[in-house]
Design a protein that fits this description.
Largest sheet: 7 strands, antiparallel
Radius of gyration: 20 Å
Strand order of the largest sheet: 5-4-8-9-10-7-6
Length: about 200
């Protein structure tokens, strides 16, 4: 009996010699293959907040990473055609909000291309924030970093924004919202029953 497999564009399934490895992705550096491979990364969900026309604005991003601890520095990547990129380029200030499971709707709201992403109904009022915090802070985030851009690089379709961290806010621990393989996920500690549960949008 011959096993039937589904072939994807730009992807090959190849049995490599003695090792018996069957590759789902076997490609050069094509964009489609890269996109497919990146979907396998499971990570936290991040919303960048800025002030757009003086109102809180948010955009979901997939590229966020710490750079170093001394001084505390992080980077984010934003599409250079977005309002968020314009806000950061103009003012140099933004906040990075890591979402909790209670904020799935915000991730969806802030990821809609071509639509307004005003989020004034979902932020902590300025009266509830320390004076050093300048950018919008999303309620129920697991942590928020208030940032100042120190270097902005243009790479292809995106801006790579390297930023100093000016303030950090975190409430009591909340379960993180995860995303990978094209869907939202719960995290479960290894050794507990079930290793991962999908969140139905």
């Amino acid at each position: 009996m011959v096993e039937q497999t589904t072939q994807l564009p730009l992807l090959e399934q190849v049995d490599v010699g003695y090792s018996g490895v069957r590759w789902d992705v076997n490609s050069g550096g094509e964009a489609e293959a890269f996109r497919t491979a990146m979907r396998r990364i499971v990570g936290g969900v991040t919303v960048i907040t800025t002030l757009h026309d003086r109102e809180p604005w948010g955009m979901t991003v997939s590229a966020f990473a710490p750079v170093c601890m001394d001084p505390p520095t992080l980077l984010v990547c934003v599409n250079n055609r977005t309002a968020t990129a314009s806000d950061i380029s103009r003012g140099g200030r933004f906040a990075v909000n890591l979402l909790s499971q209670a904020q799935l709707y915000l991730s969806q709201l802030c990821s809609r291309a071509g639509e307004d992403k005003f989020i004034g109904d979902y932020v902590v009022p300025p009266s509830g924030l320390p004076e050093r915090v300048m950018m919008p802070v999303l309620r129920d985030s697991i942590v928020t970093f208030d940032c100042r851009a120190t270097d902005i690089l243009s790479v292809g379709s995106h801006l790579v924004v390297i930023s100093a961290i000016e303030a950090i806010l975190a409430p009591q621990p909340l379960p993180a919202l995860l995303y990978g393989e094209g869907r939202y996920l719960h995290g479960v500690a290894i050794g507990e029953p079930g290793t991962r549960r999908e969140i139905r949008a």
